Amino acid sequence: xxxxxxxxxxxxxxxxxxxxxxxxxxxxxxxxxxxxxxxxxxxxxxxxxxxxxxxxxxxxxxxxxxxxxxxxxxxxxxxxxxxxxxxxxxxxxxxxxxxxxxxxxxxxxxxxxxxxxxxxxxxxxxxxxxxxxxxxxxxxxxxxxxxxxxxxxxxxxxxxxxxxxxxxxxxxxxxxxxxxxxxxxxxxxxxxxxxxxxxxxxxxxxxxxxxxxxxxxxxxxxxxxxxxxxxxxxxxxxxxxxxxxxxxxxxxxx
Amino acid sequence: xxxxxxxxxxxxxxxxxxxxxxxxxxxxxxxxxxxxxxxxxxxxxxxxxxxxxxxxxxxxxxxxxxxxxxxxxxxxxxxxxxxxxxxxxxxxxxx
Lengths: 254, 95
Known about the structure:
The structure holds 2 protein chains of 2 kinds.
Chain A: H1 2-5, H2 14-41, H3 48-56, H4 65-73, H5 75-92, E1 105-107, H6 115-138, H7 146-162, E2 166-168, H8 173-192, H9 194-197, H10 208-235, H11 247-253
Antiparallel strand pairs in A: 1-2
Chain B: H1 4-23, H2 27-47, H3 58-89
Helix pairs in contact in B: 1-2, 2-3
């Protein structure tokens, strides 16, 4: 169905395509305005859940309501989200295991070395790591947390890949362990607290803050690792042979 | 209604993305369009998360944060499929 509806740029049918496009645009405009005006009719809800969250904030272990929802009141969503990330990581994993790899990160001589980028990274990377740690820690009371910190660390990793001076092997042991550690720690803590309260992911009030911190540190590592893997798997495909940072091509040139 | 401007912008982004998904043939453009759709939906979600007394509901914020990460993962999966198809067939998906 979709195939027949897509606008093909073949010669001879351009006018027909233009008309179809205008028609589609019109239909979507009408549809969107209908949604908008129907949303305007909806009365503003009273949202009793806000008061529930604010009443129970003291027992959640953190003082930032969003973090409390993410990691205590609705922690199952966050657990499944980390599981989704891991599933995608498994799906894009390089399918050929590199038996010749010499560990997780090996230095490669890059003839196209970008001195400006590398010199800049010497200043930038330590501050990125410190900022990620700060974001992780501040998530307890202010906006921040595992995902923000993980995204920052992943940015640092992607900058390192862009230099083209490092060969990274994500199929080695330590990388795989880092990818699963977030989900594993989350599951261990979630099932572990069930021995106390008979419900999984129901943290005891006294230790909730510490448990959330443990989960977030592990999740940060996993998220950063998986995001870098996603980037790496996209840029190191065979079709990307003109990228300046494709390590395989650099080695072939030598 | 609070934040009706942001709701309108979110719905407009959703519409633009929907048009792109249906009308554009190239897989890369389709993936971009789906992302624009998703951002529009997140915006509608956040714009409508206020209560009668002006307080903000935290649950939509947390759920959208979760949604952003899942959207990133889905985009990466779609892009890797496109790359894999190109590597195998040496043809782009949708000319």
